[in-house]
Structure formats: structure tokens, C-alpha cells
Amino acid sequence: MGASNIAKRANAAQRRKQAIEMRLNGHQWQDIADRLNYSSRGAAHTDVKRALEQGVTELAVPREALRELELQRLDAELVRLSDLTSEVLPLLANPERKLLAVDRLLRIEEARRKNSERRSKLLGLDAPERVELTMEAIDAELDETNAEIAAELAAAEREEDEAAGTEGSES
Fold this sequence. Notes:
Layout: H1 3-24, H2 29-36, H3 41-53, H4 63-88, H5 98-123, H6 135-170
């Protein structure tokens, strides 16, 4: 690997570290992208997400710290949405503003739903259940299935023999 590739990788790792630190300090993705010269806020988000998914240890930023920060932000958002709901509910009594109030309440509920989805994802509540298969488990399942098939075949053969015996005795 050439010296320029090593320098590029070192610079990218440093930029990732700064991006994660900025996010931990509450910066928005657009701010991170602007300050660290990412092409977009999505690029900054993707870079940080990949680094955390790969478990990059040289960053020295625990995933749990970032997860906890995001959960705190989600909690604050729920409080804000609750306050907004309290402000909008009195508008329902005013016939001229009722439609506006209903629209706002629907938007608030949509924001709550998205908040809940994000929380579930962060906490891994929607993750598929992990199942570990071993050759021993597969072999045991195959043996059980083979035994069931053999028992069914034996029962079918007995029925055929009995049917053949009954037919033979009738003639």
C-alpha cells in the first residue's frame, strides 16, 4: 500500500472520529457535513453509521454512548410533541380553527410514530431473532424426521398386509 493510501485512510479515520464526536456533542448532520467537508448530510450520516457498525475500535467512542444520546434526543422530542399537543387541543373548540387543529394533531401523531420506530430500531426491538444451527442439531432433526417416515411406512405396510390377508381369506 502506497504512502498516499495510508495517508488517505488515516485522514478518513480522523474525520470519522471527529464526526462521531460532533454527533455526540449534539451537532446536526448538516453541520457535521459542512464542517468536515462531507458531500452531504447523508454522506456524513452514512460514514458514521458504517464506522459504528464495523465496530471501529480506534475511534474510542462507545456505541452505547451514541445510542444513549440518541435515546435522550428522542425523549426530548416526545416531550416537545406532548407540549405541542397541549397547545393544539384547545383549538378544537373553535370551529374556524378545528381543521387546522386536526391537521396539526395528525402531524404530531405521525412524528410520534416515527419516534417510536426509531426508538425500536435503536433498542433492537425489531431485530430478527437469532437462531444458531449446528450440525448436531440438523442431524438430530433429520434422524427424528427419518424415524417418523419409517414409522409411517411400517404402518402403511402393515395395513397393506392386513388388507391382502383379509382379501385372501375371503376367496
